[in-house]
């Protein structure tokens, strides 16, 4: 079976300002990197549908979802929080992003594809039950996790988040849900200044000091994630695939390289073979150096296409 690559032109229409690092060029850089990829024939391309309010409110408070729909501007720009803004097409972009994740789940669960990568923006993992944050409006991995729990006979889901920033929104949504485990590596101390002190049996938060390198990262993942996943036995693995822990990323200070993201992807593939019948759904989160974002995503997707 092929690996799904899910995106939509609407994801390019969300713009916060002309110089903002979370820009449409992030999507085009990844797509351009795949134009001549040797594994392109192993990908199946899909357009993302729009997520519905009914799907969103499984992860977010109904009042918050209504607020975002109401605030969506016809012209100009509105600020949702200190770091997140909406323009005339931002609502469509974030609905396509959540819709991509939902389509990915349906394709994987119905055995139409092997794995899925959602090439989407704006990112999602800082969005909490009732708030935007950190460039994020809706939390796509949370929306798809709830879709899986409510629409399929899935009892346990693990979300693996290797973005350089802690997935505080994801933690807030699932900290009291026994069906979901979050395994997160992140730079600390660093935005959003959460996660280091909130570890539980299901919230496997692994802070990494600035300048942490390949050895530190791989050791942390192997020593901290593996026993937790073995204990939890997830039936589906979701990925918050942030590539901003790369050494050249302008917004962070970790020291990972492209090979580390390939290694991490292979680690997840191996865990999915052990626990979840190979079911993997990956959603793009951060990554702001366009060249290395593209190279890291290329390596990530390549490993997904090569797994049996």
Work out the radius of gyration.
17 Å
Low-confidence stretches: none
* Helical residues, percent: 25-40%
What fold name stands as the CATH topology?
Arginase, Chain A
- State the distance separating the first and last CA atoms: 9 Å
Structural class: alpha/beta
Q: What do the pLDDT scores average to?
A: 98
Counted up, domains total: 1
SSE string:
EHEHHEEHEHEHEEHEHEH
Number of strands: 10
Main sheet strand line-up: 2-1-5-10-9-6-7-8
Query: What's the CATH first level?
Result: Alpha Beta
- Level-2 CATH architecture: 3-Layer(aba) Sandwich
Helical stretch tally: 9
- Note the beta-strand portion: 15-25%
Shape: globular
Name of the CATH superfamily:
Histone deacetylase domain
Walk me through what this model shows.
The protein has 308 residues and is of the alpha/beta class. It has one domain: Arginase, Chain A (3-Layer(aba) Sandwich). It is 38% helix and 16% strand. It is built from 9 helices and 10 strands. The strands form 2 sheets. The protein has an 8-stranded parallel beta sheet, with helices on both faces. Strands 3-4 form a two-stranded antiparallel sheet. Helix 7 packs parallel to helix 8 and helix 8 packs parallel to helix 9 (290-306). It is globular.
């Amino acid at each position: 079976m092929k690996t799904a690559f899910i995106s939509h032109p609407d994801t390019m229409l969300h713009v916060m300002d002309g110089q903002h690092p979370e820009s449409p060029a992030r999507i085009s850089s990844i797509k351009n990197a795949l134009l001549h990829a040797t594994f392109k024939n192993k990908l199946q391309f899909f357009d993302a549908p729009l997520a519905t309010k009914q799907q969103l409110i499984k992860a977010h408070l109904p009042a918050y979802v209504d607020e975002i729909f109401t605030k969506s501007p016809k012209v100009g720009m509105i600020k949702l929080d200190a770091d997140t803004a909406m323009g005339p097409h931002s609502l469509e972009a974030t609905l396509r992003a959540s819709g991509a994740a939902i389509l990915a789940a349906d394709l994987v669960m119905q055995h139409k594809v092997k794995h899925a990568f959602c090439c989407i923006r704006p990112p999602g993992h800082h969005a909490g039950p009732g708030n935007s944050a950190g460039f994020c409006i809706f939390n796509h991995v949370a929306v798809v996790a709830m879709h899986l729990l409510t629409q399929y006979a899935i009892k346990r889901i693990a979300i693996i988040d290797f973005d350089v920033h802690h997935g505080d929104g994801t933690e807030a949504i699932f900290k009291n849900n026994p069906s979901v485990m979050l395994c997160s590596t992140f730079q600390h101390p660093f935005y959003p200044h959460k996660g280091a002190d909130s570890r539980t049996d299901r919230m496997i938060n692994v802070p990494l000091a600035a300048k942490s390198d390949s050895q530190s990262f791989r050791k942390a993942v192997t020593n901290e994630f593996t026993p937790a996943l073995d204990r939890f036995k997830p039936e589906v693995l979701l990925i918050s695939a942030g590539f901003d822990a790369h050494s050249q990323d302008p917004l962070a200070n970790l020291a990972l390289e492209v090979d580390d993201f390939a290694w991490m992807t292979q680690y997840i593939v191996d865990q999915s073979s052990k626990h979840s019948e190979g079911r993997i759904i990956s959603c793009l989160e951060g990554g702001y150096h366009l060249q290395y974002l593209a190279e890291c995503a290329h390596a990530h997707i390549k490993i997904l296409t090569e797994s049996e």
